[in-house]
Amino acid sequence: MTDTLHLLADKLGIAKSFKAVGLKKNLYEVSDDILKFFCKTYGYNADSETDIKLSLEKLAAASWKKMLPEIVILHHDNMSFTAVLSDKQLNSEIKIYISAQENNNKQEVDFELVKTGEMKSFARETLNKVVIKLPQIFAYGYYKLEMCTVDANALSVMAVVPDKCYSAEAVSNGKLWGYALQLYSLKSKHNWGVGDFTDLQKFVKMCGKIGAAIIGLNPLNVLFHDYPENASPYSSMSRLFLNPIYIDVEKVLGFDKCMADTLLDEIAAAKEGELIDYTKVYNLKIKALKKLFAYLKTQPSYMQKLADFIKLKGYDLETLATFQAIYHEQKQKGNCGWMNWDKNLRNPQSKAVSDFKKAFADEIMFFEFLQFEADRQLQEVYKTVQKEGLKVGLYRDLPVGVGKDSAELWTDKYVFIDDAGAGAPPDAFFPFGQKWCVGAFNPFELKKRAYEPFLKILRANMAYAGALRIDHVMGLMRLFMIPDNKNGGTYIHYNFEDMLDLLALESHLHKCTIVGESIGNVPEGFLDKLKAKGIYSISVVWAERWNDGNGDFKMPEAYPENAFVSVGTHDIPPLKMWWFGYDIELSRSLNLITDDEKYQQYKVREADRYKLLSALDFNKTWPSDNLRKGNYVYGEGYPEGIEEALHTLLSQTSSKVVLLQPEDIFGVDKRQNFPGTDVDKYPNWRRRLPINVEDMESGEAYKRNIAAVKKFR
Hints:
alpha/beta; eight-stranded parallel β-barrel; 24 helices; globular
C-alpha cells in the first residue's frame, strides 16, 4: 500500500485497517483494491499514483469552492460558521439574511467577520476563509441562511441545535418499566393471523391499567408487497412508511359483518398454527382492502381525507406507491427486482415512469390508500397512549439501513453508496465478513443534501413515538461496507458530530427520547460520546457480567444508569430456551457448530445457570411463596418463579427503564430470530405468542411478573 493512497483514504474517512469483534481482536489490514473501490465511489480516482495525487488536490480544493457550506450547524454557545470570500467580496458590502425554513420572511442580521488568515489562489483570484459570528441567539430549529456580496449570493441551511438529545422528564427522573413487544407476534380473538394496530391499542390500555410507561416495538416500516415471506422488519422497502399488514381491516370504513362472514374460513386458516403464514395473512388482507377501496372511492368525505394525506406526504408517498405498482406489474412479467427492469423504468423521473403513472393511476392510489389507513390507525393508537397517560408511550425502532432492492434506493439512488452494501466485519464464523445486502448513505452526498434524506427518516420514525431506538447506532459514526463483487470490506466514516447534532435537534422538535443499540464492535470512546449527547444505551442481563461477559452476573447497583435494560432481545434466546440450552441444540441441528463445540457450550451453560441462580439467591429476589428448590441440573426441569426472580432483580437496578418480554413472561422456549440464518433454516420473525391479548391480564404468570417488576418501580 502506498502512503498517498493511505492519505487519500484517511481524508475520505475510509478505514485502512480495523479490529475484529470478539475475544480475538485481530487487526485487519484493508487491501488496496478495497480502498481504491471506495475512493472511486466517492468520486476520487485512485488507480495510479498520478490519479491519487490529482484526487488529493481535488479534495483539498473542494472546501474552497463554495461561499457557504450546504449546512451550518450552530450551538447557542458558538453561533459562528466559516465562509469563503474573494478579496473583492471581502472588501465590499456584505449582508446576511436569515428566515424560518417554512417561510420567506427574511431579516437582515448583524454579524462580526473575523479573518482566519487562510488564503488560497485560484487562477487570478485569491480566496479567504473567514469566520462569521452571529451575536443574536436563535431558537432551536432550521433556518434559511443567505449571504449577499457585491458579485454573488449564497444560500445554506442553518441548524441551531441543542447540546443534548431530548429526554422525557419521566425517564430522566424516574425508574420506569414497560414492554419490548414484537407486534406481529400478538395473538387475539379478532385479528387475522398477525398482530395489528387494534391489538396494540388493547395492549396500550392494559399498560395504562398497571402503570407501564413504555411499549418497545419492532420496526413498523413497509415491507415488500409481492414477497410477504420476506418478513424481517429490518429489511424494509422504505423507512418512511408503514407496513400495511398491521392494518385492522375491520376498522376500515365500510367493513361490515357481511364482509366478515364471507371471509370466515380464510380468516380461520390464516390464524392457524404456531407460526405466521405471511403469504396467507397478507394476501387475505389485501384482497379485503381492495374491495373496501372500491367502495370508498364512492365516498367523497373519505376520499377528500385521502387526498389531503396524499398531498401532505407529497413526492415520497407518490414515489413509494409508484414503485410498488411498477414492481407488482413487472413481477408478473418475471422481472424481479427494480435493477432488472427496463432501463427507463429504473429512473423515477423518466417519461416511461410518467406514462406508467397515468396508465396505472388507480393501482398507485390503492397503495397510497394503504399508507393512509395504516397511518390513521397508528394515530388512533397514539391517541390511546395519551388518554391512558403512558409516561413515554410507543418506543419505535429505526433500522440501520434499507434493502438494496427498495423504494428508497429506486427513488434516490445517488444518495446511497453504489455497488456495495452494509454488513459485519470478519469474525470466527465469517472470515470475509457478513453481507447484509443493506443500502447505506454516501456520507459526501448526504452532507451535500444538508442531511435531508437522514432527517426525513428520523421524522418518519419519530411519528407517534415517545422514544426511538436507533438500530446499530454505531452507524452514525461508521458502517462496515462490502463491495458487491469483492471479498472483504472496510469501515466508512460519517460526519459523526453533524449526525449527533441533528439527531439531538430532531429529538427536541419531536419530544422523542433517543436510545442507541450498541451491541457489537463498538469503537473506543463511542459510548462516552453517546452519554454526553444524552443518548440512552441498551443492555441485557447476559451482557451485565464481569470478565467481558464470562464471569459472575453483576449486582443491580452495577448496571448502567442511563440505559434501557431487559433480559434479552429479539435476537437472543428467551429465558426458558436459554435455560434448557435449546439454542445450543438448534445450532448443532443446523450444523453451525460441531458435536465437540456443542458439548463445550453445554458445559459453559451449566456453569452460567448456576451463576444466575447464585445472583438471584444473593439478591433475595425469589418470590417468597416459590423459593428455589434445587440446583436444577439438566433433567431436573425449569425453576418455577425464575422469571419473577429475574424481573425483581432488574427492577432493583440503577437503569432508567426495564423492559419485559412477553416471551419470558409466558415461558416461550423458541427464539424470534436467529441471526445469520434465512427462513429456509429457521422461521425468523414468525412466532406467535402462546396466549391471546384478551387473556393476558387473567393469567397467573402475567400477574406475578408485573408484581415482580413493580416492587421497585
